[in-house]
Amino acid sequence: MKLILAVIQDQDSNKLMSALVEHNFRATKMASTGGFLKAGNTTFMIGTDDIRVDKALQVIKDSCSARDQLVAPVSPMGGNADSYVPYPVEVEVGGATVFVLPVESFHQF
Ligand code: 2BA
């Protein structure tokens, strides 16, 4: 068994949850925050048999899109202004950042 952790954008979360249910995957959706943008994103926890991991990855890939997002500059309060960029910078936020972990044991009580 594997545990898939997928960090995705909030906008894609309903689409992904529906697709996972449609393909008979069990999933838990958690609110999370990206360290770089400090903005909300969504993390899915999906437990599945090894043999279905590739299918789950395909469902995630098909449901999530990469988008450009503007990062507002943070002024260097009393700090070094040499590296300060006074205008918003665009970064591409990926469709999904996915980790696949081995599951040592799984219990439901
Ligand atoms: P954030 O940390 O808010 O990052 C959002 C986007 O900002 C990233 O998109 C990337 O394009 C850019 N970015 C992040 N760190 C950067 C840096 N030090 N310098 C320049 N640009 C940077 P993604 O790479 O697609 O990541 C989307 C979200 O996935 C991340 O949100 C974070 O919540 C999660 N994530 C990505 N890589 C991770 C990792 N290795 N471990 C844990 N979570 C990760």
UniProtKB/TrEMBL annotation:
InterPro entries: CdAMP_rec (IPR010375), N-reg_PII-like_a/b (IPR011322), N-reg_PII/ATP_PRibTrfase_C (IPR015867)
Family matches, as Gene3D superfamilies: 3.30.70.120
Pfam family, one: CdAMP_rec
Protein name from the UniProt record: Cyclic-di-AMP receptor
